[in-house]
């Protein structure tokens, strides 16, 4: 929120009445160097967004019923953009991550990951690590590219068969 382009985008959205735009803002009060209140305070955020002609809904970002109600409020708004401000606790549920700026922009190592899964009572569920997601996407892209190349070759062969050999021997 401390970046100028955010506010420029808010002005643009409000000016053009982009009622189909929903900004979901995770307000955990932390950024890379400390709390937002001490590093770069954006309060009063709700009032600022309302001044930009946004429909503003502030909720507990950990409450699924409130999230659903906020999305319904967004869909009901037909005149202006909506910003759902989700008040959250960074790293909630993991003892060593809760309200810690140390986890801004980094992931857990294997041992920390095991502790987090245990503390979140997430055994039996599988969470992908970033490296696994990257590997799966790369494999899918390679398969997709191979399929596209195979399709191009097949289509070219069919075209050549229908039209005859396009090369003429001189």
Describe this structure in a few short sentences.
With 170 residues, the chain is an alpha/beta fold. It contains six helices and five strands, in the order αβββααβαβαα.
Walkthrough of the structure:
The chain is 47% helix and 13% strand. With 170 residues, the protein is α/β, with parallel strands linked by helices. The chain starts with a helix and ends in a 7-residue tail after the last helix. It is extended and about 70 Å long.
Distance between the termini: 68 Å
The beta-strand count equals 5
Bin the helical content.
Answer: 40-55%
What profile does the largest beta sheet have?
3 strands, parallel
Average predicted confidence as pLDDT: 85
Radius of gyration: 25 Å
Derived structural class: alpha/beta
| Order of adjacent strands in the largest pleated sheet | 1-5-4
Which regions are unreliable across 5 or more consecutive residues at pLDDT < 50?
A: none
What fraction of residues sit in β-strands?
5-15%
- H and E string: HEEEHHEHEHH
Count of helical regions: 6
Which overall shape is indicated by the principal axes computed on the Cα atoms? extended
What is the element layout, followed by pairings?
Layout: H1 4-15, E1 22-27, E2 30-31, E3 34-35, H2 36-39, H3 45-51, E4 55-60, H4 64-76, E5 82-87, H5 110-119, H6 130-163
Parallel strand pairs: 1-5, 4-5
Antiparallel strand pairs: 2-3
């Amino acid at each position: 929120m401390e970046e100028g382009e955010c506010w420029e985008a808010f002005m643009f959205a409000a000016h053009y009445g982009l009622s189909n735009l929903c900004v979901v803002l995770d307000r955990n009060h932390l950024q890379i160097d400390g709390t937002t209140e001490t590093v770069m305070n954006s309060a009063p955020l709700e009032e600022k967004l309302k001044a930009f002609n946004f429909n503003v809904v502030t909720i507990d970002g950990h409450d699924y019923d409130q999230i659903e109600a906020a999305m319904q409020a967004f869909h009901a708004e037909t005149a202006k953009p909506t910003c759902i401000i989700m008040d959250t606790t960074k790293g909630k549920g993991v003892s060593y991550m809760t309200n810690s700026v140390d986890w801004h922009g980094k992931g857990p190592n294997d041992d920390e990951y095991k502790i987090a899964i245990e503390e979140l009572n997430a055994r039996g569920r599988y969470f992908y690590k970033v490296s696994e997601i990257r590997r799966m996407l790369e494999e899918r892209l390679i398969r997709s590219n191979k399929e596209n190349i195979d399709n191009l070759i097949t289509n070219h062969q069919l075209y050549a068969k229908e039209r005859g050999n396009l090369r003429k021997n001189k």
